């Protein structure tokens, strides 16, 4: 099976001009995802996990290295060097991103956000309505909130809506940046159910987590980031809540 995503020698640093500091976020990162895999990344806060995902999604422009993606629309493409217009197209049709934070246009209701995501994929209005209802009900977002603006939601409600909006599109590649950060156990289980469903449908996923228990029986492989460098975890090791980083507060 060919790689859907191949990251080669990726590095990214930031300059804090007010402090006159140059910070290396990640250095010489190499990893790959085959189609249909779910690969996990763990590491302490500030180790560079989110930087990797944001470079793939092109929220950050990589400093050096390549991010090769096998696109249905464009063929093999280096996301680190692709034009902005191409990146926008890929975000719209192929690559999804779930973060802890929900950034949306003002005066757009929760239901409109999820429905728009479905319509954006080219589906008809009736199908979009049906899928929107299914997704909002799955995450048990109170019906009284469906026609409300997300700015009024709690952190957990915003995160559930953010996940619903990304997953309803069934993207070819889904990037998960701490997708269970502020969720209770019941909501985490609902996220896991949808991840398993998307995996069965062929979606490839790369996720970063602090909640290591959540990753059990989900990940094909796991990488750890330490000091901006990435290491593959040996498959015979067990994922536990204490074996890697005992100083990380668990969710």
Structural features, described:
The protein has 251 residues and is of the alpha/beta class. It has one domain (36-63, 84-232): P-loop containing nucleotide triphosphate hydrolases (Rossmann fold, 3-Layer(aba) Sandwich). The chain contains 6 helices and 10 strands. It has helices at 49-57, 84-93, 110-120, 125-138, 155-167, 185-200, and strands spanning 3-16, 21-34, 38-42, 64-71, 75-78, 95-98, 173-177, 204-209, 221-226, 229-232. Strands 6-7-8-3-9-10 form a 6-stranded mixed beta sheet. A 4-stranded antiparallel beta sheet has the order 2-1-4-5, with helices on one face. Strand 7 (173-177), helix 6 and strand 8 (204-209) form a beta-alpha-beta unit. Helix 3 packs across helix 4 and helix 3 (110-120) packs parallel to helix 5 (155-167). 37% of the residues are buried.
Short description:
The chain has a single domain (36-63, 84-232), classed as Rossmann fold (3-Layer(aba) Sandwich). Helix content is 29%, strand content 28%.
Poorly predicted sequence stretches spanning 5 or more consecutive residues: 236-251
Structural class: alpha/beta
Total beta strand runs: 10
Helical fraction equals 25-40%
| Element order: H for helix, E for strand | EEEHEEHEHHHEHEEE
